[in-house]
Specification:
- Among the domains are: 8-75, OB fold (Dihydrolipoamide Acetyltransferase, E2P); 116-153.
- It is built from one helix and five strands.
- The chain has one helix at 118-151; strands at residues 8-16, 20-25, 29-34, 55-64, 67-71.
- Strands 1-2-3-5-4 form a five-stranded mixed β-barrel.
- The radius of gyration is 29 Å and the shape is elongated.
- The model has no long low-confidence stretch (mean pLDDT 80).
């Protein structure tokens, strides 16, 4: 059987390390599942998910110089996530004020902003350019004022 990227195989966990698990594959081949490819959730201890001798279904995700990179999580359905914007790590109720009961936020549908027109994009770019230009000119003026004062002495 020829191993190719995307192939799904059955294997046995041969050994476990802190960074991943080595899987015995058909035809006396061995591949490795990195700890980040074990589950869709964060895995701090791989031994909570895998044990030596366990049969696992894996997907070949890469082959590099004889090394076979495997994944278990890519065969699992992806978990559903809330539509929270990236970088918003607040609690679901938002910031809490003293004496305010913690109520669940309303889940009203939010309309995405209308796409910007070419004129609006140009105006934004022009404002950014003008702001940057003004700051550069002011720093040049400060430098030249400093030089002329030192020459007068």
């Amino acid at each position: 059987m020829e191993l190719t990227v995307g192939a799904v195989l059955e294997g046995k966990v041969k050994s476990i390390t802190n960074f991943g698990a080595f899987i015995a594959l058909p035809e006396n081949k061995t591949g490795m599942v990195h700890i980040s490819e074990v589950a869709n959730a964060y895995v701090s201890d791989i031994r909570q998910h895998l044990t030596e001798g366990q049969s696992v279904k894996v997907m070949v995700i890469g082959m590099d110089g004889g090394k076979i990179n495997l994944s278990i999580k890519r065969l699992e359905p992806k978990p559903q996530r809330e539509n929270a914007p990236k970088g918003d790590f607040r609690s679901p109720g938002g910031p809490r004020r003293e004496g305010t009961p913690n109520r669940a936020p309303s889940r009203a549908p939010v309309q995405p902003p209308a796409p910007k027109t070419a004129d609006q994009l140009f105006e934004e770019k022009l404002k950014a350019f003008m702001s940057e230009s003004d700051s550069k000119i002011s720093s040049i003026r400060q430098y030249s004022d400093h030089r002329t004062k030192s020459r007068r002495r």
